[in-house]
Amino acid sequence: MKISQTKNFGLVARLSKPVQDLHFSLYPMHFNQYNCEEVKEFFEKLMENKNDIFLLLEDDRKAVGYAWIEIKEYKVNPFKKAYKSIYVHQISIDDMKRNKGYGTSLMKYIYNLSYEKGIDLVELDYWVENKVAKEFYKKNNFVKYREFVYKQL
């Protein structure tokens, strides 16, 4: 298994399809159907930002997953102190490779990257109906410290 940073927006766009398909199936009122060309353009622009980092997970030289993370810098204001975090936007592992430690390896890579950058906080969110994500992050000792609620009118 190999994890490396990548700028291959086409490959990441292809690997993101299962995540987009899941989100669309769970929340079609919020998510668009997967469109490879639009996703490629989106990731290509994001990859120009130094704070957006894409990690490629390979097994036997075949891409089997990725993570999209962002270094977030929260500025001081009258209400909050300044701090930095690594924010995990997406993680996707090929269906055939799930439950074999690949996601955990990606998370460990993210933790090490955080330490290297002097950042001691990793943040993320997931949609409530995404039970796989909920269990994965629980297994990786993430704890809730904020809840996001809504009311449909």
From TrEMBL:
N-acetyltransferase domain boundaries: 11-153
Species of origin: Pseudogracilibacillus auburnensis
SUPFAM superfamilies xref list: Acyl-CoA N-acyltransferases (Nat)
Any GO molecular function: acyltransferase activity, transferring groups other than amino-acyl groups
Xref: Gene3D superfamilies: 3.40.630.30
Protein name: Acetyltransferase (GNAT) family protein
Keyword terms, alphabetized: Transferase
